[in-house]
Design a protein that fits this description.
Order of helices and strands: HHHEEHHHHEEHEHHHHHHHE
Number of strands: 6
Number of helices: 15
Structural class: mainly alpha
Largest sheet: 2 strands, antiparallel
Helix content: 55-70%
Radius of gyration: 22 Å
Distance between the termini: 68 Å
């Protein structure tokens, strides 16, 4: 879903700043009111969460790949304004350091994934959840449906933007930028998400809400009202143990992907998701998996034991996510609209002038989530290690960026620093003691 440089005309790419920048300004103003020792770490965590799941590409119908974003889950926990900021920062770090999304397309990518997605997803969530208790199962379903709709609408926006390029910008009858028209771009984006990425996003989001209901229900209360007085989380606690929730969610995700893959491949395992899996070197994949397993066995326990108690769970989870992220490298194909100029040349017989001129306008230091000294000629397991290290670097950069931005925001609003959050009670409020005279 990340639009690279050259696929969108600069007028449209930079012109989207007229929507994106005022939205950022409004979001920052609203978030300043809730900045505290609770919300700032949460924003850093969700920025890293969004960054990590966007690294993990999954195969989808058509022989291409897609990824989740996590914007709806961030909006449910932090509120839409904070979600806009956290996902935007993830996208900006991706573009500047890893070449995921174009420099000129930053405003447009943020509009699609950091503004449209969380606003639509959260709106659908609130509509379905209504006034149901925080711990109700209805909110888990509402979160999943909201996430599904949010990322699908975002994909539709990308399809429209790509599809408009041949109509708006052409020379001598040839498109200057993206050569895919509306008839190709919209179905490609919608099909790959409706039957792939949107389902993954929905399962991740509903699983995340179910987990928070079980372990940290206080984070599902409205952060906009934390200064108004003590709140009460109502509803029945989720009865299943956490490991069962995780196992059910992971199982549902695997079954969903396998089912979609077989359907799109006509029942042929070798052509799941419409891709030709015979192109994959399974010997290289096996060596990569072995290296990833060894790294996981060493680093995951080490991370758990070294981190302070309050960060053990989250820190270990992100280390595990960074280690397994290279599994997405196994999927053949490339995300729609994100192919190289060589891919466009093979498909259309020429490279659009604007795409040729702008595709190399900026070179990220860790382009493709890889270390500078690694290239396509390196073994897959070496590329995987570069991918893992890049992911860890990205999460650290995001943490620093979030804390830096929120520090500056709190400096502009000194009164926010002195406000302490009241405790959030779980279950019925305790009876108030009466004092006599």
């Amino acid at each position: 879903m990340h639009i690279p440089d050259g696929y969108i005309g600069p007028i449209m790419s930079l012109g989207s700043a007229l929507i994106t920048m005022p939205t950022w300004a409004i979001a920052v103003k609203r978030v300043q009111k809730i900045l505290s020792n609770r919300t700032v770490p949460l924003m850093a965590i969700f920025a890293a969460f969004s960054f990590t799941i966007m690294m993990f590409n999954v195969p989808v119908p058509g022989g291409t790949t897609a990824h989740g974003v996590g914007g709806t889950l961030a909006a449910i926990v932090l509120g839409p304004s904070a979600a806009i900021i956290t996902v935007s920062m993830s996208l900006i770090i991706q573009a500047l350091f890893f070449g995921d999304g174009g420099i000129l397309a930053i405003f447009l990518n943020c509009l699609n994934m950091a503004i449209i997605l969380p606003l639509v997803g959260y709106g659908v969530y609130r509509l379905i959840a209504g006034q149901s208790p925080i711990l109700s199962t209805r909110r888990v379903w509402a979160a999943g449906i909201g996430a599904y709709v949010g990322i699908t609408v975002s994909a539709l926006a990308v399809g429209i933007e790509l599809g408009l390029q041949p109509l708006l910008f052409s020379e001598a009858g040839r498109p200057l930028y993206s050569p895919y028209g509306l008839a190709e771009a919209i179905p490609a984006m919608l099909i790959s998400h409706i039957f792939g990425a949107s389902a993954v996003e929905a399962i991740i989001t509903s699983l995340g809400v179910a987990y928070l209901q079980k372990r940290y229900p206080e984070y599902l209360t409205s952060l906009r009202s934390v200064f108004a007085g003590p709140g009460v989380v109502e509803g029945q606690q989720v009865g299943r143990p956490v490991w069962q929730i995780l196992a059910i969610g992971a199982g549902a995700l695997v079954v969903c992907l396998l089912g979609l893959g077989l359907i799109s491949g006509g029942g042929d395992i070798g052509h799941m998701f419409g891709a030709d899996w015979s192109q994959v070197s399974w010997a290289d994949v096996g060596s990569m998996l072995l290296v990833v397993l060894v790294i996981a066995i060493v680093l995951i326990p080490l991370t758990y034991f070294l981190l302070p108690k309050r960060f053990k769970g989250v820190g270990t989870a992100f280390m595990a996510a960074a280690i397994i992220a290279p599994l997405g490298l196994i999927a053949p194909g490339f995300a729609y609209g994100e192919g190289s100029t060589e891919d466009v040349q093979a498909a259309f017989g020429y490279i659009p002038k604007g795409l040729h001129d702008l595709s190399t306008i900026f070179s990220a230091p860790f382009s493709g989530y890889n270390l500078p000294f690694l290239s396509d000629s390196n073994a897959l397991w070496q590329t995987a290690i570069g991918y893992e290290i890049s992911g860890i670097i990205g999460m650290l950069l995001l943490g620093l960026a979030v804390f830096g931005v929120t520090y500056l925001a709190r400096r502009r609003e000194p009164e926010a620093e002195s406000q302490d959050e009241p405790p959030i009670l779980i279950g019925p409020a305790p009876p108030q003691k009466r004092t006599g005279t």
